[in-house]
Write a structure and sequence with these properties.
It holds the Pfam family AraC_binding. Keywords: DNA-binding, Transcription, Transcription regulation. With 283 residues, this protein is α+β, with helices and mostly antiparallel strands. The relative contact order is 0.13. The protein folds into 2 domains: 4-160, Jelly Rolls (Sandwich); 172-275, Homeodomain-like (Arc Repressor Mutant, subunit A). It is built from 10 helices and 11 strands. It has a 5-stranded antiparallel beta sheet, covered by helices on one side. It has a 4-stranded antiparallel beta sheet with strand order 3-8-5-6. It has a two-stranded antiparallel sheet with strand order 1-10.
C-alpha cells in the first residue's frame, strides 16, 4: 500500500493519481439532512472524498478549517482527526466516498488532485458520483465496477483541477477563535466582550468580522452551541430541566425554558417527549 507518510507530506497540496491499478472503493453514499447537522468527531483509517452538492459542510481536519460548498471537493487523509465546527443548515447535501490507493509504481503520477478545490464543471463530477453509487450498490455484475468508477471520478477531478493550486483553509486565527468558543460556550460568563478580550480584538470589530465570514452573529453562534448541547441532553439522558439549564449556562430554569422555546419552537419538556432516547443526526 502507498506510504501514508508520503501522502501526508502532500496533504496540503495535491494527491498523486496513479493509474496502473484502480483505486479501491471501500464505501460511499449521498448524505442529505432535513435538519441542522454537524459532522461527528472521528479519525478514519482510509481516504475520504467529499463532493459538495448543496448547502455548506463546515469541517475541521487536522487543525485546519474548511467550508465545503456546492461544487467543492475535500480530501480527508488516513489517521487525520476531523469533525464539524459549526452546524450546517437543513438541506445540506454531499457525496462521500472512502477509498484505498494502490501500491505506487516507479515514475511520476498521471495527475494530481488538490486537497480542497472548486470544480469548474461540478455536474460532470456529480454524474460520475451517481454512477459510482449505482455500481457500489450492486448495479453491475462485475464486482470491481465500483473501483473503476471511483478511478474514473478521480481522473475527472484531476483533469478539471489540473491548473488549480487548490483553495486555502480558514486562517489560523479563526480556528483558534472557534475552538475557544466551543470550549467555553456553555459557561455562564461567556460573552462577546470576554471572547474579544481573550482574542485581543475590539468587540465591535470581532463581531463584524465574524458575521462577514460566517453570515451570522457571534452571539447567535454561541446560542446555537448551547441549544445543541441542551437538545442532546434532553434527548439522550435523564437530567432534569433545572440541571440542564445550569449546564448550558442558565441560572434560572424558567429563563432557560423561554429561551429554548424561542430558538427551538417547542418547550424543553415537549422536545424531550418528542425526541427522548433518540440521538441527534450527527454522523
Amino acid at each position: 500500500m502507498l506510504s501514508i507518510l508520503r501522502i501526508k507530506e502532500e496533504k496540503d497540496a495535491l494527491l498523486p493519481l496513479y493509474l496502473h491499478q484502480p483505486y479501491r472503493l471501500q464505501m460511499g453514499g449521498h448524505f442529505l439532512s432535513d435538519e441542522t447537522w454537524s459532522h461527528m468527531d472521528r479519525t478514519i483509517t482510509d481516504y475520504e472524498l467529499i463532493i459538495g452538492v448543496a448547502g455548506v459542510v463546515f469541517l475541521e481536519a487536522d487543525g485546519r478549517m474548511y467550508e465545503v460548498q456546492a461544487g467543492d471537493i475535500l480530501l480527508l487523509m488516513p489517521g487525520e482527526r476531523h469533525r464539524g465546527y459549526r452546524l450546517s443548515s437543513p438541506g445540506v447535501s454531499f457525496y462521500w466516498f472512502h477509498f484505498l490507493i494502490p501500491d505506487p509504481p516507479t515514475g511520476d503520477p498521471a495527475g494530481r488532485i488538490p486537497r480542497y478545490a472548486r470544480c469548474p464543471n461540478p455536474s460532470r463530477a456529480h454524474i460520475l458520483a451517481r454512477q459510482l453509487l449505482h455500481a457500489a450498490n450492486g448495479g453491475y455484475r462485475i464486482p470491481e465496477a465500483g473501483d473503476y468508477f471511483l478511478t474514473c471520478l478521480l481522473i475527472e477531478l484531476a483533469d478539471q483541477l489540473q491548473e488549480s493550486g487548490g483553495r486555502p483553509a480558514l486562517p489560523s486565527q479563526l480556528h483558534e477563535l472557534l475552538a475557544w468558543i466551543r470550549l467555553h460556550a456553555l459557561e455562564r460568563q461567556i460573552s462577546v466582550e470576554r471572547i474579544a478580550r481573550h482574542m485581543g480584538y475590539n468587540k465591535d470589530y470581532l463581531s463584524r468580522m465574524f458575521k462577514r465570514r460566517f453570515g451570522s452573529g457571534l452571539l447567535d453562534y454561541i446560542h446555537s452551541l448551547k441549544l445543541e448541547a441542551a437538545k442532546e441532553m434532553l434527548a439522550g439522558g435523564n437530567l432534569g430541566i433545572k440541571e440542564i439549564a445550569d449546564r448550558v449556562g442558565f441560572g434560572d430554569d424558567k429563563q432557560f425554558a423561554k429561551w429554548f422555546k424561542r430558538l427551538a419552537g417547542v418547550t424543553p419538556t415537549a422536545y424531550r417527549q418528542a425526541f427522548g432516547h433518540t440521538r441527534l443526526n450527527n454522523t
